[in-house]
Write a structure and sequence with these properties.
Layout: H1 3-6, E1 13-15, E2 20-21, H2 24-31, H3 36-46, H4 53-74, E3 75-76, H5 86-95, H6 106-118, E4 124-125, E5 128-135, H7 136-146, E6 150-158, E7 161-168, H8 173-184, E8 189-194
Helix pairs in contact: 4-5, 4-6, 7-8
Amino acid sequence: MDLDEVLQTHSVFVNVSKGQVAKKEDLVSAFGTDNQTEICKQILTKGEVQVSDKERHTQLEQMFRDIATIVADKCVNPETKRPYTVILIERAMKDIHYSVKTNKSTKQQALEVIKQLKEKMKIERAHMRLRFLLPLSEGKKLKEKLKPFIKVIESEDYDQQLEIVCLIDPGCFREIDELIKKETKGKGSLEVLNLKDVEEGDEKLE
């Protein structure tokens, strides 16, 4: 590790804002050495990051915006299928007094926010459009097992295979994929036609 890329100075301070440098005996007592470069390495590997209130506030604001961006990207008004703008989601998050958790990822928190916003406004994750190609022998039986995961069946076609085009909640994708692989022993297939079933234009709150 090149310390000069990480540090502004190799000096160790007792109080950086007052410019008070640590005394030699204090360094030996705390770190067992007065070699400032070695002490810097110890602090970097074992120390805790001290973040100023301003930096923390900036970090929280950025995470808040990132969460709102993920929610806006994943969700629509279920009645119009139109997406909400990031600004509108930010406003809704402020209305429910959502507080950012720095120990959780923005993606995890976005899913929490969606759940909470559902109680206050018309919002749900945009559906994913899939096409299933299933062997006729297992097709009908498998369709019954898939039904709980399907929001809307748009078309069904029985030819050499059972072909179903449908909308699902994206959260169910993995379960559906595993179910088809297991039940058809790899003969069935699943194709993503649209990651998000959305209408053009942004949703506005009246």
